[in-house]
Amino acid sequence: MRRAVIELILTAAPGGGFVLSTGGSIHDANCYDNVMTFIQTALEFGTYPIHKKRLKAELKKIEVQGDRK
What's the whole-number mean pLDDT along residues 33-44? Predict the structure, then answer.
């Protein structure tokens, strides 16, 4: 989940106007850990100005450690 959110931010956010969203409501069937990881990652990396180097470094870290979230 963390990797997916970071990739979305890195791809769509530069240039401005990007709004990261679940695309709809969050239901009981959604995995709580995934929802919380989505929110935490968005708060950590999804505010302007977007720092591409930081995002790319985090993706490399995830590749080495694995995306456990």
Answer: 95
62 exposure class (CB count in 10 Å sphere: 0-12, 13-18, 19+): middle
Residue-range domain boundaries for the chain: 2-13+28-65
Distance CA 11, CA 63 (A): 17
Q: Say if residues 37 and 69 touch (Cβ distance below 8 Å).
A: yes
pTM for the model stands at 0.85
With H, G, I as helix, E, B as strand and everything else as coil, classify residue 14: coil
Residue entry with tokens 């995002």: 55
Distance CA 44, CA 11 (A): 16
